[in-house]
Amino acid sequence: MKKLAVFVLIAAMMVGFTQFSKAQNFKEGGIDLNLGLGTTSSIGFIPVYFGGNYMIKDFLSVGAEVQFRLDNANYGYLGSSYDYHRTGFALLTRGDYHFNDLLKLPEEFDVYAGVDLGFAIYGDFKSNDFDYEWDDDNNFYFLGGPHAGGRWMFADKFGLNAEFGGRSGDGAYFKVGLTFVIK
Question: pLDDT, tens digit, for every residue of 106-129?
Fold first, then answer.
């Protein structure tokens, strides 16, 4: 019974938020900022990403993103296992096509797809288990690939976002976060 009450309360809040949202946020000249976290299939965890987009037209945007990253690797021999860690940053540019008008979506939703291009810079791997320094030649690499995502603006200037994609150097990735419309 408690679960049903919580579900009904959350559903009522979601309906209420969408009824008050009159967001014409994703229009020509608009600017939004995104903040969140994610994961990739090859480098591990993205504890934080921050980016922004500028709407060139109602259906087209360009933007940039910076990511702080934690990379993990496991190495083992003769029955032993050692964990290595490193930190780094990724700097990305992006271009997106927004499908809102094409799909005739309500104003509070934004569905898009696009391409990322950029690079990642890492420090050397370090280990808490072992003193051996891992000589890693891949401390700098280029990133590029497609992505798709969506945003739900449950208030005029505030919403949620989710995105997935695949990039050279990263493999598949998934991100979730918050969207703030500033213009």
Answer: 989 999 999 999 998 887 666 666
